[in-house]
Amino acid sequence: MGISLGDIIYDIGGGIPRGRKFKAVQTGGPLGGCIPVTMLNTPIDYDSLTAAGATMGSGGMIVVDEDTCMVELAKFFLTFATDESCGQCTPCRVGGKQLLNVLTRITEGKGTEEDLALIEDLSNVMAEGSLCALGKLTPSPVRSTLMHFRDEYLAHIREKRCPAGRCQALTHSRCVNACPAGVDVPSYLALVGEGKYAEALSIHRERNPFAAICGRVCPAFCEQKCRRGELDAPVAVRQVKRFMADQEFKNPWTPTRLPSKGKKVAVVGSGPAGLTAALRLAQWGYDVTVHEALPVAGGMMAVGIPDYRLPKDVLQAEIDHIKRAGVEIKLNSRLGRDFTVDDLMDRQGYAAVILALGAHKDRRLGTPGDDKEGVLPATTFLREVALGNRPAMQGKKVAVIGGGDTAIDAARTARRLGAAEVHIVYRRLREDMPALKEEVDAAEAEGIQIHLLAAPTEVLGNGKVEALRCQRMVLGEFDEGGRRKPVPAAGTEFDMDVDVVIAAIGQVPDLDGVALSPAGSGGAGGATTSRTLAVDGSMMTSRPGVFGAGDVVTGAATVVEAVGQGNRVAVLVDAYLEGKRVAPGDNGRWPDYRVLDLTYSLEEYAGVARAKPVELAAEARSGSFVEIEQVLSETDARTEARRCLRCDLERRNAE
Ligand SMILES: Cc1cc2nc3c(=O)[nH]c(=O)nc-3n(C[C@H](O)[C@H](O)[C@H](O)COP(=O)(O)OP(=O)(O)OC[C@H]3O[C@@H](n4cnc5c(N)ncnc54)[C@H](O)[C@@H]3O)c2cc1C
Q: Which residues lie closer than 8 Å to 88 by C-beta, 6 or more apart?
């Protein structure tokens, strides 16, 4: 009694296996309730569990990870409880069955928002009118999941999507479900397995035009959910994708276009969100111009991700495809400096504007001395290097603060520019670092030193950086995301002897100059939240006809998420301009997922291990920006593609 849920789950239970994320704990047996990650500090006692929407009950706990669908879980417990009903009183006998019907509808994608109110009504009637505790408590799992996981219910209802990829009627296959752009992974893998690379690539491009780029830098959400991973290791989808895209690298793609509609759309920002939206709208017959503030196109793909992971010729080739669709890209054209939204809409005749500005403003360190010469914001540093203005690093000692992709890229870039020592200072544990594990390992192999459970307290020096004062951290209570909060340990300060400090503690959108109000009214129109651009359910800002997409809306994310946003905003802009309504879960203009026939025996590939690409050795690569990862051989790529268990066939068989 009194110990926190988190202490039991992590310290006694050993945490969540296989690196997955904690999602919920169901306490008190099948009639108990589900408690979310935000409440891991809840102490285990009768009052606290009841206040959290759960019960002490039998004292049992069932811990579920991110792969559990909370609607499905509530249905599971409800099925058990309704079977147990003796049938004597109507609220329990009939109410339980009705609740089960509603949940079944939702998991099959047939639910409506009114169903949520119905769940609440039925639950209240059962809790008040049932004769015994079974009937009174049967709705608890449903009520608590609805209280804490309402968004998950809404995703099933509004988007016809099961975020956990568990509800079969809503999930083509887990990899497709996990891909933010919804790429038809099993189909292109099947075609690569048959050696039909061009056909495979065209399926990829239906939903994501950046196959060569994502084949190099995608965090591969699909692989994280791949069922093959439960047997041995996930299919190396990203590497197969890269092989597929590289086969067609020399064959320029000219996307098809519908006849012109005579309507103009402006896109501001040439990152993956802006370019994807521009491509789709151009394909559908709009005249699209992209305005880009920088002298190069590509957003963070051009000025964030370094060349050793994404060579510039690969990026350029995929941008050129988009230009061939008729998209005009105007470089050195900054919103707020060279033009305004009013100019675009009121004077230049654009019918709609998409703001895809990314997140390019670095957070400051916030310690004394963080304005000294030699303190560099990470994305500014990486941008300058990408634009050819390499800061002098030869022989310098560099400390990079942060644990994400940007921190790792900044550290590895400083190393490549000749820094004598590079240190990464991160305030939590290694497993908490948001950067990909492989990237962290690669940085270490290149000689970068990682200092965990440490945080800067002051930048020391007379006008310019001479040292960085840090403090040791210990881990305390759980934060909202389920990680333990780092807390400074008194009396543990130490100084690092460095000349450069690179702050990589996150980026936020730069919304200066985004004046959305119609001409004459001035101001930003109240359309921005403190950190991101606010949009409604149709991705529109407070100004009619002005939309937002990508990192500027979601906060710093990934290329494939930006592509998903670009696809979605294009559908919504088209609907707005054509006066159409987009129904929930509407697939927009994308073809239905195919289920290709299986042309070989899966058994033959049962014992095949995951393919590993060749990489440049750490000594050879750490002084150069040459691409590290090499493409798979044709044999390896085709074999790897056939390791796919073809979960999509299961769906076809179920239908
Ligand atoms: C160092 C680093 C490494 C990363 N590594 C990866 C990775 O390995 N894998 C991955 O998937 N993702 C990675 N990301 C994240 C990924 O690059 C971004 O999530 C993605 O590029 C966001 O796309 P976007 O189109 O929303 O914005 P961006 O790509 O940021 O593009 C926005 C564009 O808008 C332009 N712009 C901004 N303001 C204005 C204005 N006022 N007027 C005109 N133009 C403007 C910007 O110059 C920029 O070109 C990384 C990011 C960084 C910083």
A: 131
Domains of the chain: 5-170 (1.20.1440.230), 174-251+595-654 (1.10.1060), 264-360+509-578 (3.50.50.60), 362-508 (3.50.50.60)
- pLDDT tens for residues 111-155? 999 999 999 999 999 999 999 999 999 999 999 999 999 999 999
Q: How far does residue 246's CA lie from ligand 1's centre (Å)?
A: 23
Whether the Cβ atoms of residue 567 and residue 276 lie closer than 8 Å to each other:
yes
Q: Give 385-426 pLDDT, tens digit per residue.
A: 999 999 889 999 999 999 999 999 999 999 999 999 999 999
- CA 369 centroid distance within chain: 34
CA-nearest of 558, 587, 633 to 220 is 558
572-605 core/surface letters (b: 16 or more CB in 10 A; e: else): bbbbbbeeeebeeeeeeeeeebebbeeeeeeeeb
Say yes or no: CB of residue 278 within 6 Å of ligand 1: no
Which residue's alpha carbon is nearest to atom 15 within ligand 1? Answer: 558
CB atoms within 10 A of CB 204: 25
Compute the distance from residue 358 Cα to the ligand 1 centre, in Å: 5
Which tokens belong to 573? 């802009």
pLDDT at 519 over 60: no
Length of the chain: 655
Ligand 1 contact via 291 beta carbon (within 6 Å): yes
Query: Is the pLDDT assigned to residue 269 strictly greater than 50?
Result: yes
Q: How many CB atoms lie within 10 A of CB 642?
A: 23
- Say what the pTM is: 0.93
What's 295's DSSP letter?
Answer: S
CB count within 10 Å of CB 145 equals: 28
Residue 468 tokens, joined: 């960085």
| Structure token pair of residue 453 | 């459970």
Distance (Å) from CA 81 to ligand 1 centroid: 49
